[in-house]
Specification:
two-stranded antiparallel sheet
């Protein structure tokens, strides 16, 4: 089965821009910064709902901060290029892979436009 992210990688090979999809942080996950650690913590109704606590690196925390439903993926990618001195293509692929992980754990929701 081909996922939207696999299709997006194919799109990247033929284009320099990312898809226009926007994402919003889910209300079922909270972000906490403790010391130098950036954490995503699922809000659990019961202890069985608590599957994991996710640790984000600086790039992941930067992406998470921008997932407000308003920022385009191109805007987020441009910030990654500026702040972390990476090439555009690398930032695009890293962004899509991280978003796929966030979608899989239910931490973000796709905004339908």
């Amino acid at each position: 089965m081909t996922t939207i992210f696999e299709l997006d990688r194919i799109h990247l090979m033929n284009s320099s821009s990312l898809p226009t999809t926007r994402y919003l942080r889910s209300h079922s996950v909270v972000f906490r910064k403790i010391a130098d650690e950036a954490l995503l913590v699922p809000i659990a109704r019961t202890s069985a709902d608590m599957h994991a606590i996710y640790t984000l690196n600086a790039v992941g925390a930067c992406i998470w901060d921008q997932l407000d439903g308003h920022n385009s993926l191109d805007t987020i990618c441009d910030r990654l290029v500026r702040e972390f001195a990476v090439e555009q293509a690398v930032a695009q692929i890293d962004l899509l892979e991280f978003l796929q992980q966030l979608v899989e754990v239910g931490a973000v929701e796709e905004i339908v436009q």
